[in-house]
Amino acid sequence: MTRTVLDAPPAMPALFARAALTARGRGGDLPDTRLARLGVEVDPASLAAYSRVCGFPLADSLPVTYPHLLAFPLQVALMTEREFPLALPGLVHVRNQVDQLRPIGAGEALDVEVWAERLAAHVRGATVDLCASVAAGGAEVWRSRSTYLARGATAPEGAPDADVGVSVGALDRVSAQWRVPGDTGRRYAAVSGDVNPIHLTGVTAKAFGFKRAIAHGMWLKGRTLAALAGRLPDAVSVDVAFRKPLLLPGTVTLSTEPVEGGWDVAVRNAKAGTEHLLGTIRPS
């Protein structure tokens, strides 16, 4: 496996522009490549902006989902390489698994490494897992696995079936309701760098088959965890499936149930009951 260490974060707008220009003609197997950055320091202003957008209280430790923002630019750089088999524009985040091994101080220097694995067949196309590991002081403190769906793509012959489901209880009791504004995708894109056009405007989302712009899955996951702030284990595993896309604007409900020292959670459309997110939160 080839490991490349970058001196600076990739320029996200340029990466997405390159992804659009090189979307056609992709295929084959995943590249045997890892990208990394060492000694990454969290910008306090960026952390505060992220916390505001997702609803996290300001604290001395990072929100459980924040390290994804440090890994995501590297993952985009990996996905825009010409050898990557799936086109980045239009990819839909369908599952995300995070393991926080301990709270991460906002002032810690972090080593971030990403890679891709498990190209799989899905009834609507093909999926790929983008993995990340974050270390502090030489020890891993956080890891994640993000599964993305490329609709209409074809997985290589013999590829395994995609694993995108998460099982939860009935979750009939509503504990909160949120109105999600129409600019949520643009606000989250501004703090995360995820400027995938499916999240920005109705016009750009329609080009990829969506009626309106859709919320980022990781914003929805962050918003859900923010609602449980102060009630999460220090070492925690959070596994969520992103189900029906959340069209913007929209109104959703949050249902929670204590389970095994953690929680089962569900975010649904307030009127239709359509499931947008199902997840489990457990001590790790």
The proportion of strand residues reads: 35-45%
How far do the termini sit from each other?
A: 29 Å
Judged by helices, strands and strand pairing, the structural class is alpha+beta
**Strand adjacency order, main sheet:** 1-2-4-5-6-3-8-11-10-9-7
Low-confidence stretches: none
- Output the number of helix runs: 6
Report on the architecture of this protein.
With 284 residues, the protein is an alpha+beta fold. It has helices spanning 12-21, 44-54, 67-79, 184-192, 202-206, 217-226, and strands at 2-5, 33-40, 92-100, 110-122, 125-136, 139-151, 174-180, 236-242, 250-259, 262-269, 275-283. It has an eleven-stranded mixed beta sheet, with helices on one face. Helix 1 (12-21) runs parallel beside helix 3 (67-79). The longest helix has 13 residues, at 67-79.
List descriptors.
35% strand; alpha+beta; 284 residues; eleven-stranded mixed β-sheet; 11 strands
At a glance:
By secondary structure, the protein is of the alpha+beta class.
Q: What's the SSE blueprint?
A:
Layout: E1 2-5, H1 12-21, E2 33-40, H2 44-54, H3 67-79, E3 92-100, E4 110-122, E5 125-136, E6 139-151, E7 174-180, H4 184-192, H5 202-206, H6 217-226, E8 236-242, E9 250-259, E10 262-269, E11 275-283
Parallel strand pairs: 1-2
Antiparallel strand pairs: 2-4, 3-6, 3-8, 4-5, 5-6, 7-9, 8-11, 9-10, 10-11
Helix pairs in contact: 1-3, 2-4
